Amino acid sequence: MWGSSMGLDYIKTKLLDYKVQWSYLEKEENPFAIVVMAHLKALETRKDHSLRKQWKTELTKLLYEKGYSETGVLNLYRFIDWALTLPEALEKIFLEDLSVKLQIV
């Protein structure tokens, strides 16, 4: 009205830009860093299931190392599990390995 305008501006960022900032993401306490890491590794390991299993294991361990609450770990793990899906046989091996590692911790 009378030459006025109103709008919203949003900061835009590409998750792929964080690929070169991996060490920053590893140190970051913000849970969204894990989400970005899982996304980047999902893209990177689309055709290499063995490498995907390795990264799924590493990111899951990182949840515990960062000291998130049980609820936080479960919620973030759900995303990691969704982003880094594995073939059924490899998923079974992953879960067996994970249960052994959690018993050690």
What can you see in these coordinates?
The chain has 105 residues and is an all-alpha fold. The chain has one domain. 65% of the residues lie in helices and 0% in strands. The chain has helices spanning 22-27, 31-44, 49-65, 70-83, 88-104. Helix 2 (31-44) packs antiparallel against helix 3 (49-65), helix 2 (31-44) packs parallel to helix 4 (70-83) and helix 3 packs parallel to helix 5 (88-104). The N and C termini lie far apart (64 Å). The mean pLDDT is 91.
Features:
mainly alpha
Number of DSSP helices? Answer: 5
Distance between the termini: 64 Å
- Binned strand content: under 5%
Give unreliable regions as ranges.
none
Counting helices, strands and paired strands, the structural category is mainly alpha
The figure for the number of domains is 1
Cα-based radius of gyration, to the nearest Å: 18 Å
Secondary-structure map:
Elements lengths: L21 H6 L3 H14 L4 H17 L4 H14 L4 H17 L1
Helix pairs in contact: 2-3, 2-4, 3-4, 3-5
Concise summary:
With 105 residues, this protein is mainly alpha-helical.
